[in-house]
Amino acid sequence: MKQAIRTFALAALALVASCSPGVADAGAKAPATAATASVHPISGLQVAPVTVTRGNKRLMFNTEFARTSAEQAKGLMFRTKLADDEGMIFLRNPPDRASFWMRNTVISLDIIYVGLDRRIINIAANAVPYDETPLISGGPTLAVFEINGGLAAKLGIQPGDRVDW
After folding, report:
1. pTM assigned to the model
2. Residue among 51, 14, 24, 16 at smallest CA distance from 145
3. Rounded to a whole number, what is the largest CA-CA distance in the chain?
4. Mind listing the pLDDT tens digit for each residue in 77-103?
5. Contacts of 31 (CB under 8 A, 6+ apart)
């Protein structure tokens, strides 16, 4: 009996360990509504809504969630298109002063830095493809949200707007 309990406990511990995120991936939670989640056909990343709110105006984007270190390192590299209702979000855990660049990124992006209060801190607008100049957040970030270059200005997205996922 003791051996059976020990074997069960070890198996349960192994299962928990295999399902637990690594340190780099800690806090990268799945979207609250799994029913609306899907998988992106190119990246294989989970897709769920991200909403930008400005006053009573709400803009919804079908967003790829880059959670792991490897997913975040790749980001939108080598992608040749992104629809205007699409984006990618990088959840930062722990929150940090983020710095992004455009190495191997073919399309221009607006890189939106989201603060600890889920409000936009600053936007690196129209980031130049392939440019390796660091584009730095204006403070600690909870997330970094990328959309097509120039789209933030076109839609009126600006610092102070709220971003929810």
Report:
1. 0.77
2. 51
3. 68
4. 999 999 999 999 999 999 999 999 999
5. 37, 46, 48, 49, 65, 165
Cα separation, 114 vs 91, in Å, equals: 10
Tell me whether strands 86-96 and 141-148 are parallel, antiparallel or unpaired. antiparallel
DSSP letters spanning the chain: -HHHHHHHHHHHHHHHHHHSPPGGGTT-PPPS-GGG-EE-TTT--EEEEEEEEETTEEEEEEEEEE-SHHHHHHTTTT-----TTEEEEEEEEEEE--EE--TT--S-EEEEEE-TTSBEEEEEEEEPTT----EE-SS-EEEEEEEETTHHHHHT--TT-EEE-
Q: How far apart are CA 58 and CA 51, in angstroms?
A: 6
In the numeric block, which tokens belong to residue 80? 């040749």
pLDDT in tens, 35-63: 456 998 888 889 999 999 999 999 999 99
Alpha-carbon span 47 to 63, nearest angstrom: 5
Measure the CA–CA gap between 128 and 150, rounded to whole angstroms: 11
